[in-house]
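Bug #77: duplicate submission created two jobs. Keeping one. Sequence:
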Amino acid sequence: MTKTTVPPAYLPATWELSDVVAVQALAAGTASADQQVRALNWVVYRACATDEVEYRPDEREHVLASGRRFVGLQIRKLMAINIGAINKRSEN
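Kept job's structure:
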């Protein structure tokens, strides 16, 4: 079995220049459709590490990783909500 090392939770998320450009364009309200997707993916999957295991042996690192992941899960929840079902429920 291969041992995988998990980076410390306190390290900044990795990024590429294209991620920076996409996030800045998103913040300015000028992002293309591709940049919007790239920026959101960077936030959810890199900055928040949503799909990563949050457990860390050190309690402080675990809490930090858990907090980052929680934000990503909240964003993904809003991305998955069925708006049509909410609107239909509101009408009844």
